[in-house]
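In pairs, describe these two lines:
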Amino acid sequence: QQLRQAIEECKRAILALPEHSERQKDAVVRLIHLRLKLQELKDPGEDEPNIRVVLEHRFYKEKSKSVKQMCDKCSTIIWGLIQTWYTCTGCYYRCHSKCLPLVSKACVRAKVSHQAEYQLSICPESGLDSQDYRCAECRAPVSLRGVPSEARQCDYTGLYYCSSCHWNDLAVVPARAIHNWDFEPRKVSRCSMRYLALMVSRPVLKLREINPLLFNYVEELVEIR
């Protein structure tokens, strides 16, 4: 409460002091320090456990203080200097300590372990109405008009996601590669990006069964065969 009162007094002082004066600049610096201190109290990190298990994620508390990351849950910056944050050792999902209880998506590595296979249809869209105009992951309302939130399509799953679950990350889509020999990166959701990254080295594509005609057109495949 004392910190909040000091912040309000500092804001009033900044407005009252002559613009661009040294005293006003000093007051602005003091305001920043007070706000950081308040944030630190809101997000205590010393008593946090080093390991947290949530929905098959195995989260480890990060020690780095200087690296600036983005939280996969709330899509805001993780300030390592004053905030506690965790990274999943399986799928590299990262989030604030305060966001851990809100994580709703299971670890992608579990899916890779239990169901190591690709979606082999090219962008299998079924329409936003089939999703009840909600994000495929967090179920937040979305629309193509951007109200209340922009619907972003994942080129791998064909589903639509909100901007918190789809950051316009780019990845090579396996279906396009094996059907059209197209390796141009496409926009995919965060979940799809992590899944594709974990699957990239797994020998799960039986190319001669999936698309044998490809060997007639791609010289490198003929040499490998």
In short: The mean pLDDT is 83. The first helix runs from residue 2 to 16. The beta strands are 51-54, 57-61, 68-70, 77-79, 85-88, 94-96, 152-153, 160-161, 169-171, 186-188.
